Amino acid sequence: MTGQAFLVLTALADGSRHGYGIVQEVAGLSEGRVHLKIGSLYGLLDRLATDKLIEPDRDEAHDGRLRRYYRLTRDGRLALAEEAVLRAATARVAWARLGLPGPEAAE
Amino acid sequence: MSGDLERRYRRALRLLPGYYRRQWEEDMVAAFMDSSLTGDPEEDELITDYGRPSWPELASVVALAARLYLGGTGAPRRYFTCGQAVRNAVLVVMLAHATQALGSFAVLGWERGLFGLPAPPAQLLGEPWEGIWAGTWYAVGYAWIVAYIALVLGYRGTAQAIAVLAIVPDLVYLLHYPGSWAWLILFDLVPVLAMAAFHSGAPPVARRSWLLALPVSFAAVAVPVIAIQASGRVSWLDRPGLFCVLVTLACLTHALVVRGRPGTASRQWSLTLILLAAATGIYQIASLAVDPHLLAAGVTELLVMAAAVAVDGHSLIAAWKPLDLRRPARLAALLGIAAAVVALAGAGHWHSGTTTGARTTRPSQAAASIVVTAMVSQPRTPAGGCPAAYATIPVPGVDDSGLCFRQDGTPVTLTSAEVTSNPTDNGYLFFVTVPASEAAAVKAVVTTAYVSHGFTSITVNGKTWELTKVTPFAGGQLVIQIPDKNAAHELLRILVPSS
User: Fold this and answer.
1) If interface means Cβ-Cβ distance under 8 Å, which residues of chain B face chain A?
2) Of the ranges A28-37, B383-392, B396-405, which one carries the lowest mean pLDDT score?
3) Which of B50, B105, B327, B400 is packed most tightly, with the most Cβ within 10 A?
4) In chain B, which residues have their Cβ closer than 8 Å to the Cβ of A50?
């Protein structure tokens, strides 16, 4: 799973979001480092939808346009959880090798 | 009431395949408009009415389009076939580069006596190069091998970076000896860009087969080609000609193998071969010689390749929408355009005005004297003239250097010399075997030019054919390089009129 896909799935983990909502959430999650372009976002959403990790949730009218909201599927939750465990394990090793207390202690 | 911004963004989205737009376009437009607005009503109205999508946004749409047309796993069948065909074509071109690099590596080993064979013939070696630059030059060329292996193993970024490095020698060569850009564009730049087809959605490359392909193509293609070149009968088999022959053989083999049982993979390979044939065809047309014999050989190779592609890919070609053979008007128009292109290309070549054909690569006695002269140069005066005793020397096919020349020391006239010629991509190399009695004199002239940072001129029939800083002279052989193919053929006809 690429870093961007991980961020998009994380952005949808606590509830459904529409396209631009995902862009904003990803920017927030990455502390402003990742600002997805719309073309890149919909490339990712298309792939995640093809892999059945996300699905459309509902449409809401806003300013005369329909905003489509997306949510994680069951498979999406599983995939995100697996990836999160993997990334956390790597992070713990990194912290240990640097001789630092664990990430939890730094919170 | 949609403004300029939305209209422009929708126009950019037309780059995307129809199936994708039907599913995502409205949503993309909504998200894009959301992302463009600031929350300040006045400013937003201005942006909506007159704004344009930013370059990074447009670039992301172009990247998405490339990714969708070069479809990966899960893409609709057409786009997956297209993606696989492009990936295969890139792998084949990279394989060709790697094989060529291995071949020149083998010739280097031969030259250094690694195989216990007698020394290779001069036409195989090209120009003798000395020093660190030549070493770097060759080393960079070998980078194709690394780039190919990196691509097969799935390190696309690495492969792309190394391939860009490996293009440098071709680029430097072209800047020095202006020739056809077809090779650089079609077989260097386009494949490097097309490596974008190996995106994260693409299926992994069949590593074992493609890794095995390198030694196989070295043994089955590079070794025979080196042997043919060493035997010296190769004027029709320059690089574009060789590519035509290889694509022809590949098409016929593929047509035989899949006869009667067309499948997904075979459609992908038919499309791959069509892509390769198109690139090879353009390359061949761009490098066709004026010389009637070579032109005839080149056009024959081209036609045979076209026939072989038609045999293998006829069902794909017929199914291609823009072609739509069921519409006679469109077919007639396409045939008309094709005929016009061929006629124009032919007229252009014939108009260049050559008459008799002559070619050889076998050693033959030169029919005219070759005069080798050391020259010193001076820049032109500000008024554009030459200093006293200096004169400009026009060289066919070479741009005016802005220099004036004067003879330096005594010239050598070779009245009996044996000449071999060897076609390269950008003209010809002539190998002149200097009689032992003249060798010391030639060496003196070449050394004079080298030591005085001057030039050596090669004059035949009163016309200067080459004027160069360094003229290789080793083992009794003088190497003349004529970058311009037509000038090379003219010189060949003077030196070897009988062939």
Assistant:
1) 20, 23-24, 26-35, 56-57, 59-64, 67-68, 74, 200-201
2) B396-405
3) B105
4) 74
Within 8 A of A4 by CB-CB distance, chain B residues are none
CB within 8 Å: B57 and A39: yes
Q: What is the mean pLDDT of chain B?
A: 81
Q: How much is the pLDDT for B346?
A: 57
Written in H, E and C, the secondary structure of chain B is: CCCHHHHHHHHHHCCCCHHHHHHHHHHHHHHHHHHHCCCCHHHHHHHHHHCCCCHHHHHHHHHHHHHHHCCCCCCCHHHHHHHHHHHHHHHHHHHHHHHHHHHHHHHHHHHCCCCCCCCCCHHHHCCCCCHHHHHHHHHHHHHHHHHHHHHHCCCHHHHHHHHHHHHHHHHHHHHHCCCCCHHHHHHHHHHHHHHHHCCCCCCCCCHHHHHHHHHHHHHHHHHHHHHHHHHCCCCCCCHHHHHHHHHHHHHHHHHHHCCCCCCHHHHHHHHHHHHHHHHHHHHHHHCCCCCHHHHHHHHHHHHHHHHHHHHHHHHHHHHCCCCCCCCHHHHHHHHHHHHHHHHHHHHHHHHCCCCCCCCCCCCEECCCCEEEEEEEEEECCCCCCCCCCCECCCCCCCCCCCEEEEECCCCEEECCCEEEEEEECCEEEEEEECCHHHHHHHHHHHHHHHHCCCEEEEEECCEEEEEECCCCEECCEEEEEECCHHHHHHHHHHHCCCC
Our CA-based measurement puts residue A96 at a distance from the nearest CA of chain B, in whole angstroms, of 30
